[in-house]
Structure formats: C-alpha cells, structure tokens
DNA sequence: CCGGGTTCTGTTAGCGATAACATCACGAGA
DNA sequence: TCTCGTGATGTTATCGCTAACAGAACCCGG
C-alpha cells in the first residue's frame, strides 16, 4: 500500500470523493432525502461500504441539536423492580431509534438525582426518565433544566412532570380484600421503608380496604424491602401467632423472609397464617408454599414512560402533564387459605 | 424583561462576554488549565453560574474525539447476574468520569451483538464492554471496528480481546468437592443451557472434581437458568431419590425450583438430598433450607472490566490482551449435610 | 534599562456533520 | 424561442467547543 494509508476512520468527504459527488449528496443519501438520482444513490452506497464508512453521530448531534439519546436515572438497578423497568425503557427506546444512557444511583437523594440530571443534560440527552421511587428523589424533578422533556416513573405527581406508575393503592387493596374475603378478621402489614412512594401507596390501599370493610387496622411492621428485614418481621409476627392470621407484605423478597421465619418457628403457611406479597418476582411461584402476590407489569411501565417522553420530545413543546397508571394484577397461589 | 430574552441555553461565548474575557479563557477555566489568573477564574465562575451555563459535551467530543462514554452490550438485564455486572460497570465507569450507554439484547446472537456494537461505534463511544455469556455472542467480538477498545465479561478468551470473568470451573469444583467431602458417593449436576460459557465452565469443574476423586460421573440434567426448569429437573431427580444424594445446581434460581419439587415429593433437604447452588442471589439465604452456594462477586467483575478497558483507552494503543479471573467464594448454609 | 523567558490571554482554524442557499440542466407552456 | 418551475447537485455557513499559535504583560538578571 502507498504512504496514504489512513488509520483515521473515513469521513463523509472521503465517501464523497470516492463516489465523485459532494459531501452534501452523501448526507442526502444517508438521510433518505428524496431528490437524489437512483444511480447516484447506489454509487454513494457502494462507496460507503467500500470504505466501511459509519457516520459520526456526535457531529450530527451538534448541528441538529438532537442526540437521539435518552437519559435514565435510577436507584440500584440490581433490584428486580428497577432492573425490569429500566429494561422495558431500554427496549422501548431502542425500538423508537433512541439510545439510552444510564446513571444508577447508590444512594438516592435530591442532590444525587440533581447531579445525575445535570450530567445527562451536559451530555446532550433529548429527554430524561427518572425512576424516582422516593419522595425526596422525586422532588429533584422540580428543578429540571428549563425545557428538558422528562417523565417520572413510580414518582410523585406534583404537576411538574408526567408520571407513569403501577397503581399501588389498588394493588394493596386487591391483596387485602382477598385476605378479608377468605374470612380473616383483619390483615397485618409489613411495609416498605418510609419515604418510598410505593410503600406509602401500599399502606394507603391496605388501610383503605380494612376501613371499607369496617375492620380494625392492626399495628404495622416496617422493613427495607430486603429478605432479611422480612425475616425479622416474621419472627415478631410468629410470636403473636394466635392473633395474626393474615399478613400483606409489601414485596415478595420480604415475604420470603417471613416464610423462612415462620418455617423456623413452626408456623404453618397458609394453615395458620396466610401471606400475600407484591411484585411477582420470577422466584415467587417456587417458594414453599408458592406465593400469592400482586404482579406489577414493569415492562409496560417502561414502555408507557417512553411513549410519553417521546411525544413530548417530538412535539417540541411543553405538553400538559399526564398521569398514567398501569393496573396491577392479582396472582393466586398457595400462600393464602380460608380462615 | 427586554426583547433579548433567549430561550436558547447559554454557550461559552455568552459566558465570555459577561465575564469580559475570551471564550478560550472560559474553556481554560472549565478544563482546569493552570495558566489562568485566580481573579479571572473567579470572574468566569461567577458568570457561569449567573447564566446557569453548562458545557456542551457533544461539541467537546467532536473536537477531542473522546465522548467519555462507554458502551455496554448485555443480554437480558433483568437477570440477577447481568444486572449486577452492569451495575458494577456503571458505578466504576462513573467513578472514572465516564458515562455508560446500554444496549440490552432480547436474543443474543452474533448478528445482534454486531449491530449493537455498530450503533455504539456510530454514537462515538470510547470503548465497549460486552457481557457475552454465550459462545455465539462472544464470537461477535472478532469483528469489532478496528481500533475500538473492548473487553468481554464472562466471555471467551480467543486472543482478540481481554476477558474478565469469575472462575466458573473453580466454583464448580468447590461445590462438588464440598459434597464429596461430606461423604456423598457422587454428585449429580443440573446444568445451564448449552452454548452458555458459564454453564460449560461449571460442567467442566464438576466433572474435574469427580474425576479427581475417582468417582463415577452420573448423568446430567439441563435447565435454562429459570426456577421452572429447576423444578422440572427436581421432579426427575426426586423419582430417583434412592440413587441421588447430592446435586450441584448451576444457579440459585434453578436450585429454588429443585427445592420446591423436592418439597412436593416429600424429599427432605438436606437429610435425603444435599443441594449446592451457584450465584448467591440475595434470596438464597432465606430459602428453606437456606442454600449452600457459590458466591460470584459481580461488582468486582464490573470494576475490573472497566479497569482493563480504561487502561486500553487511556494508553491509546493496543495493549496485550489479558485474562482476569475473579475468584468465587464458597458459602456454607443449610442445604447440605453429611451422608 | 534592556533582552528573553514566563505567564496570562486572545485569535484563528478546525472537528464532521446538516441547513440554507446557489447553481445548473431540463422540459413544459407562452 | 424564451421564460420559468422543478429536480439534482454543489457551495458556504454554522453548530459549540478545543488546539495551536500569536501577542501582551510581567519578571528576572546582567
């Protein structure tokens, strides 16, 4: 080969030279502009794959002001819920021709979320999805960069942004009513940590169902979503085995902890105590006993949030804020029985 | 306000004008260039936050040829392993000042991985991490764009790229040896799906341990990582309860399925059959019985892979390919007993 | 008090694409 | 035949930043 061997990847001008056209014509071909002669188009295409040319989306983004990249801010994506939601978001975004840039926060507070949004804004994302399950984090959405399209997932409706979420209150109501329908006098609750919107919604639905049925609202135990915290709660409840006959646990992982504690204490599920979980993680069906639970369609949440976001981005203007609610689904298995 | 209200976000020139300096000086301040007078620096800083200026990383990337973004290609990030690995990658990348752009594949084949890599390359990522647990996907790394730094996670060492992975063979050996040490004559294996490198490594380690101890290698059952497939395998094994006294299961989710099947069939764990899993998912400790398993440090894998990748990127040249192996860890719980 | 190096700052020229406008060839209608 | 509209293509400017060079101010020792 001659001395002209370029290690540098080819640019549009190189393609243009080889095809004997101007770089603008190459651009037209790449962007499917109608006014290009068919013969010219094929000549350009041939030059493109002869050189192995790939267009530089960074340069493109600079002039068009659109990166076709969406930012996602999430909390701990190793958890099943966030992981599934982010997966749904990523799939929906890619189907629509967008990339996804992720920031996964270790601790979730307003400052952290704000920083993350700032980074993403600098990077030039066209819009932002915030998976903000905590009240404090959700508030960070109040100071979004002006004009930045955004949507909150499992967040807080404060009028500032659109929100997509599963109907937590309804899910908790389904769980609680199911247990009441089975003849239990009342239903205990092991909740998620304070400040989490999902935890609050589930508490609300649980209370509402009890109140509507005219039942006493018993004390509430609080966990942190982890199996271990469920285990601890289970030990406490086992000690009150006579009084407690039904428990609605705020997520499946904690429910697993309860099951373990009950097994250790010789409390039979569902014979002595019935349990309903929340989430329907893939493992729940194979717990002993298989867990009756409330399924959340995280994939749907992800997809709907991208719908809303893209509508905002592509309209170019500030659309009225929406609140989309995805219905939860009751899943009957073996951890509940009549009393 | 006057008629000069710009909706358009401020650019460097705006800051420069307000601070009474040139845009280059603003650039110097932003890039911590040493030769800037302290007073000038503060004046610029003041102008920056007076205007709420954020630099445009797209423009910066265009000229520097570095986007400070890494691409990650992964398979189904709702699974615990990939999710944890990607989380580790994201944390390590961000600590090093890099963004992460993710492509999560539904189905993993060479073409899919290649497309994903192509998109990321167009987008201008500085390097790529491929979480390629399948043989077919790993091969896609053979046709990376020239000069693109890359690293494979849980991939295949073929000399083309560096690989970071947990030592699957050693993990399987630990699991199998533990069971043999407890006095079991031999150990059965429920493997992961064919074509998965992790599944192959675990089979290899299991075989090696049996052979080294001079034990017969019994038949092998194959699952697909899901609890359901473990459940099916468990039903089969329960039917042979007399012959089978110890099972090494290729992941914890399938082990859960086995436990469920054994419970249904009245087979006691660990009294009649001992079980060892793999992964140490957060739930394992609360299975009934708590699962003895092999822990994989996914976070470490993510971090090491970013180390390797950044070293490549920042050296600017093609470094010799490395193979980094993260040791697995044996976790003793209640699902194994002496025979 | 002057030459020659530091500092500091400004000016100019790109990065690789698209947008906007200019040009040219050609055919239809006056 | 001479416009004039239209389709195909080329030319130039521009996006917002950093690199490279240029110039001004300052310090020092001789």
Structure report:
The structure is a homodimer of 339-residue chains. By secondary structure, chain A is an alpha/beta fold. Chain A folds into three domains: 12-55, lambda repressor-like DNA-binding domains (434 Repressor (Amino-terminal Domain), Orthogonal Bundle); 65-165 and 298-326, Rossmann fold, CATH 3.40.50; 168-296, Rossmann fold (3-Layer(aba) Sandwich). Chain A has helices at residues 12-19, 23-30, 38-51, 57-64, 80-95, 110-123, 135-139, 168-181, 197-212, 227-239, 252-265, 298-315; strands at 69-75, 99-105, 127-131, 150-153, 162-166, 188-191, 220-222, 246-249, 274-276, 293-295, 323-326, 329-331. In chain A, the strands form three sheets. The first copy, chain A, has a six-stranded parallel β-sheet with strand order 2-1-3-4-5-11, with helices on both faces. Chain A has a four-stranded parallel β-sheet with strand order 7-6-8-9, with helices on both faces. In chain A, strand 3 (127-131), helix 7 (135-139) and strand 4 (150-153) form a beta-alpha-beta unit. The longest helix of chain A is centred in the last third of the chain and has 18 residues, at 298-315. The first copy, chain A, is elongated. At the A-B interface, helix 4, helix 5, strand 2, helix 6 and helix 10 of A face helix 4, helix 5, strand 2, helix 6 and helix 10 of B. The structure holds a DNA duplex (30 and 30 nucleotides).
């Amino acid at each position: 080969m001659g001395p002209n061997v370029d290690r540098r990847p080819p640019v549009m001008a190189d393609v243009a030279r080889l095809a004997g056209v101007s770089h603008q014509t190459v651009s037209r071909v790449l962007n499917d502009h109608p006014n290009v002669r068919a013969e010219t188009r094929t000549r350009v295409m041939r030059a493109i794959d002869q050189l192995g040319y790939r267009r530089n989306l960074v340069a493109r983004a600079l002039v068009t002001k659109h990166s076709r990249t969406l930012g996602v801010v999430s909390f701990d994506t190793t958890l099943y819920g966030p992981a599934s939601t982010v997966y749904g978001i990523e799939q929906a975004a890619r189907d629509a021709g967008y990339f996804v840039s992720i920031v996964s926060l270790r601790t979730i507070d307003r400052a952290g979320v704000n920083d993350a949004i700032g980074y993403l804004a600098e990077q030039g994302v066209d819009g932002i999805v915030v998976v903000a399950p905590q009240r404090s984090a959700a508030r960070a959405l109040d100071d979004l960069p002006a004009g930045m399209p955004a949507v909150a997932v499992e967040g807080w409706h404060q009028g500032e942004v659109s929100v997509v979420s599963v109907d937590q209150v309804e899910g908790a109501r389904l769980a609680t009513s199911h247990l009441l329908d089975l003849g239990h006098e009342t239903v205990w609750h092991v909740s998620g940590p304070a400040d989490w919107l999902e935890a609050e919604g589930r508490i609300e639905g649980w209370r509402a169902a009890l109140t509507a049925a005219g039942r006493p609202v018993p004390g509430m135990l609080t966990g942190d979503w982890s199996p271990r915290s469920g285990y601890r709660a289970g030990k406490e409840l086992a000690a009150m085995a006579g009084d407690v006959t039904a428990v609605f646990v705020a997520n499946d992982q904690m429910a697993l902890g309860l099951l373990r504690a009950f097994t250790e204490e010789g409390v039979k599920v569902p014979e002595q105590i019935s349990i309903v979980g929340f989430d329907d993680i893939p493992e729940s069906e194979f717990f002993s006993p298989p867990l009756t639970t409330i399924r959340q369609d995280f994939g749907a949440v992800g997809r709907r949030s991208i719908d809303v976001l893209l509508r905002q981005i592509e309209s170019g203007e500030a659309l009225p804020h929406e609140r989309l609610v995805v219905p939860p689904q009751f899943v009957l298995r073996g951890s509940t029985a009549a009393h």
